[in-house]
Protein: 3-methylmercaptopropionyl-CoA ligase
Organism: Sphingomonas panacis
Amino acid sequence: MVNIAGREAYSYPLLIGQLLASVKQYRTTEIVSAGRRFSYVALRERIHRLASLLRSLGVQAGDTVAVMDWDSHRYLECYFAIPMMGAVLQTVNVRLSRDVIGFTLRQAGAKLLLCHAEFEPVVEDLRDALPDLEHVVRLIDGDEPGTYEALLAAALPEFPFSDFDENAIATTFHTTGTTGDPKQVFFTHRQIVLHTLAASATLANQPDGQGLRRSDVYMPMTPLFHVHAWGLPYIATMLGLKQVYPGRYDPGTLLALKKQEGVTFSHGVPTLLRMVLDAASESLAPWTMLVGGSALSPDLAREAARKGIVTVCGYGMSETGPILSIGRSGPEDTIDSKCRAGFPIPLVHMRTEPDGRGELQVRAPWVTQGYAAQDASDALWEDGWLHTQDIAEIDPDGGVRIVDRIKDVIKTGGEWVSSIEIEALLMSHPAVSEAAVIAIPSKKWGERPKAFVVGSPGTAAPPPQELRAFLAQFATGGHISPYAVPDEIVFRDSLPRTSVGKIDKRLLRQNAESEPNAVLSTRIATQGDIHGP
Amino acid sequence: MVNIAGREAYSYPLLIGQLLASVKQYRTTEIVSAGRRFSYVALRERIHRLASLLRSLGVQAGDTVAVMDWDSHRYLECYFAIPMMGAVLQTVNVRLSRDVIGFTLRQAGAKLLLCHAEFEPVVEDLRDALPDLEHVVRLIDGDEPGTYEALLAAALPEFPFSDFDENAIATTFHTTGTTGDPKQVFFTHRQIVLHTLAASATLANQPDGQGLRRSDVYMPMTPLFHVHAWGLPYIATMLGLKQVYPGRYDPGTLLALKKQEGVTFSHGVPTLLRMVLDAASESLAPWTMLVGGSALSPDLAREAARKGIVTVCGYGMSETGPILSIGRSGPEDTIDSKCRAGFPIPLVHMRTEPDGRGELQVRAPWVTQGYAAQDASDALWEDGWLHTQDIAEIDPDGGVRIVDRIKDVIKTGGEWVSSIEIEALLMSHPAVSEAAVIAIPSKKWGERPKAFVVGSPGTAAPPPQELRAFLAQFATGGHISPYAVPDEIVFRDSLPRTSVGKIDKRLLRQNAESEPNAVLSTRIATQGDIHGP
């Protein structure tokens, strides 16, 4: 805590509260959420009231306060008020199973939970297993007594926020990786402020229609429980944009808000983009969507463009806070180059090992310094570089192309095949809307690719042999290795998803392993014609 | 120095070198200067070569390296290479007198000086009085043996830059205030990086035509020796803009470069803007000019607009690193509101004492922590706020209007009159192009305003009585106090300027004091008709 009296210079810590220093000027700009709309002046006051409420419930600096809510103004207020008190904001992934939610709340030691009414049954079940949890504040959209809005209205409108060390932990959450248990990551005030500044400078300086401008209207489509919704709520607030919070993601609601509130900027994983495109019957322009989390396929980008959505690719992960790179494109860029992971944003160092193409390793002032578990941290950091576990190519101009997750790469016949590449080619077939390719163990080849595909709506599924022949053309043309053509291509009604909307390849692999005989027999039957000399 | 080995997280210091982390992507963007043009890839290499050269001349971390040059690529390279070595860059105001230059070099303890051939006679004169100075490197536009370009070409193209404490001093220079001796200020790496990020986010996010976009071409018109040219060379480099360095400011050269290189963004004091407007015979659009240092009068802004220049006001001072606020305007804004000092940029706290209208006091993570002289620092900082010595009004929307410098305010007849306000009204008269109003001591009224004006080119100077009558209308209309109408209005061919182009009111006051009788007699003769009840 800095408490300077007399004639001494103020030592300015980089605290989340400082992002609000200049927002007074946005007194007519609105936050829209859950049927409410209020200005930035009101936002500031609501943040103070929330802190007053939490203090009255015993929250002190260093305590962990957890939130279970859909995207709302309440969540935005928690993004500020909780860390500004010196407490730690735990954003809970509400899509996880009850037991895993319990694990994350317990590991973080949450003392108070702000919980949407919808999740109360889950928390009720868990309560006995959460010895640290002292209070639960009920979140609903209305203002019934005893719930969030009523409590806020009764709380003091000025909270005596004070300064503290910028390296204090501001937020914590669990990565929802496709391997192993959720891992707890931490971000400090300094990290979040620096991420906000560097990403703001980049997004604001994008070519027209590919970034954020003061006149843009922002609506998240990456949940606020997931890596601070990629940091965009902090960015949008610092830049003074109109913000729209859509609650639980429902295509109809998202499209209605887009239209009613004039939303022009969102961000999300490809699955969300697909969901919105499938539900839209008319052009959605102007709408810029920052896409990340998984590779954006050129076909999905094209389909988005046809419906008026400009897609901009970004790259990052839970451990990196998250934004590391953002794409931009000129008229000469192909759709393929637009689907790269973009260019490193200011202050981000990237390298691959080996140089040119290899594991992507990064440094940035906002990446997590480790996990709660030391073992996992050791694997994350080596030689002072954060190891992303992604294989990437870095172009001479610094542009980054993610080849694959290391664990998703298929090593077959002595070659390394990118699952992402095969998936993109499969999705370029008119009958395929989604694709996932995994490795299946093979005695002869080490591994072999196996594809799961979802057909395009209203299109008859072609025989798998036709899709294999389609891919084989690219092998003949030298675009992919002949080894990259999967032996098996299986149609499915849908693909399993993780809690944040990525395709769950771990589950696909597990299921494939549980039926080894059937898989092997099919593979053996189809292998020869592809792998011949 | 951080030297992490093994499995430990990288502790990322905010160093000026980190601003170059992502510039590899700008490999086709050019730096244009002194007849040369080269890419950002070459810029990076030249920075390494310069550091190698300086190391070979004995420069170590902690040493001070001074620069005396006009605006050039060399200066830009010094902005990076010197602080990146852990050395301190001293930017020397070459417009000061020989003795004052000697004072600043001596106080900073410069060990090596990079000196343009034009200033060698000055340095030759001073050499005996500079015991710390060991080397002088000659700067010329050509590449003769033994001069900058030749030495760079012979130096090693890779320098082993390493990390160090972000609170290390990066730059130092002397404020050229209109009172007292030059005062030495310091800026750390952390301060410069944070200024770069926050100002970049703001400028990039301005309304169209009022800020910086990736496609903009940047040319400074605030000298690089003055407060890091307001930080713009760092900003332009981090954002990857084409940059044009014009050497010594000559209107013909500036306009020729503007046209040839497609310059679209510059910054400077009102005097520079006037100089360019006077020299221009055709429209200069598109050209955005960030104007600061002194108040921009509505008439100069209008004249600029007629010639195609969009003026954007900014506010800051040498002590503040400098940018604190930047203006923006919509179609509904009047020219008057456009001439405000703008809105605080992210992370900047502003208050006035008393609240609403009073001395402007600020906090930002990049303002200087003090002067070399402790006494002066004590006056700068009080209660943890930096005292700007400017009187300001802060609007409910956070917009800032600078009323006057505290020492320029005129206390007359119990009222406080803003010299800036009277000057703007005088300049709105068609026969007046420039104006300066100072306070003259008065036994009866405490002080009285006195005006010095420069006539418009090609317009006959009206009798002073006509200008007084012109101002009196505004007093009658209630726009200004009757006390604000100067007793004396004197035509001059030009007004004295400080070394950075501001009107030198201190000199005007000194001269007025040296002729007290004449002034008093005129004042007494003209006072009655204005100050009647």
About this structure: Chain A has two domains: 16-400, 409-531. DSSP finds 16 helices and 25 strands in chain A.
